[in-house]
Recover the amino acids of this structure.
């Protein structure tokens, strides 16, 4: 998502609140993935949106740096109203 699209979708005086539900964790090829449902609520009256978020980090492999062990957003689903 471009910075412009991100601003248009989620910008405003009051930023959105994101609730993350209980998810599932799985490992693959030296990485861990955590997938969970999310709900994005807006303070300006726009309808809430639902979707999923996937976080990724390097598995606990020898030599992994602290940065590699931090969770990062891998992808999000198309959020629906």
């Amino acid at each position: 998502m471009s910075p412009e699209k991100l601003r248009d979708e989620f910008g405003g005086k009051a930023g959105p609140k994101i609730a993350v539900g209980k998810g599932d964790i799985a490992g693959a090829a030296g990485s861990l993935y955590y997938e969970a449902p999310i709900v994005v609520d807006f303070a300006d009256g726009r309808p809430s949106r639902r979707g999923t978020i996937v976080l990724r980090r390097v598995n606990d492999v020898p030599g992994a740096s602290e940065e590699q062990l931090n969770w990062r957003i891998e992808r999000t689903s198309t959020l629906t109203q």
